[in-house]
Amino acid sequence: MNEEILIETIKRLMVSPKGLLAIDESLRTCNSRFEKLGVQTTEEKRREYRELLITAPDIEKYISGYILFDETIRQSTADGKSFISVLQSKGIEVGIKVDGGLSDFPEHTGEKITEGLEGLEDRLKEHKKLGATFAKWRAVYTIGEKTPSLDCMKENAKLFAKYAELCQKNNLVPIVEPEVLIEGDHTMEECYQAIARNLEVVFNELKLADIFFPGMILKTSMVLPGNDAKVAVYNQEIAQSTIKCLKEKVPNEIGGIVFLSGGQKDEEATKNLNEMKNLGPLPWPLTFSYGRAIQNEAMEAWAKNPEDIAEAQRLLLLSAENNSLASVGKYKSS
Known about the structure:
CATH superfamily: Aldolase class I
Strand content: 15-25%
Number of helices: 12
CATH class: Alpha Beta
Strand order of the largest sheet: 1-2-3-6-7-8-9-10
Mean pLDDT: 96
Low-confidence stretches: none
Helix content: 40-55%
Largest sheet: 8 strands, parallel, barrel
Order of helices and strands: HEHHEHHEEEHEHEHEHEHEHH
């Protein structure tokens, strides 16, 4: 592990006023979104759509890194330029989702653990040769009467630690993403407790594995009520609860924190980040790592009129710019 390489990569990823764009949807997830919009679920249509995202003019003003899927990192534009070379020419860092998806956690109904450790180091080395400088591994947790269980949290934390260790050994910055799902009728307080307890477990395992904290990034959920809770919550309340939780449970020396949008409405994710940045100085760099919250309008426009790439890219840039403004507390709601 070369600590200097990891720190320099994080400086480029967490540079203000930029954030990350996640275009790492699995084949199943991407195809599902295409089906809803009436788009063919072929490899060529996925390539065509992701070319739109990667070649958007001036996207580098707002985005410091793209998280890609294994299929995408190997693809090229219609005129033969590799997606990686396009991103590198814009000064954008190339990231790669390396987990293998979710599987049922034995004897724990409704809980999932993340697969993908088998052959991981070989994949990391291959992706690094292709041009990747950082990676991402996601676990998910549901809030219920008996979930997330301590067993599930510990098992996923051990997987995070092994993944992060292999990334840093190969000089790739690991993004650790413990996503607490928004589905359900849980309260904000229940969400707060679930995220806080889980972060405690995750960072305990990372510490035991001797992970270099300044050379890693946490991708986390915000403290939110479940989308079936039917309660009105203000952006400021979400921001205050989220920052309080992170300050209590995340080490100050971590390289940075980025947020997932996690099924929030697009503008709500932007507003919540904006409120957090207006709470005063924070111990770590803080920005966004959104997927749908930046892509949604662009994808819908492209699905309706695939010939009008310029309009879809205009919508993509507008959303990226809004979140860039939010990352420094300067977003004004439309």
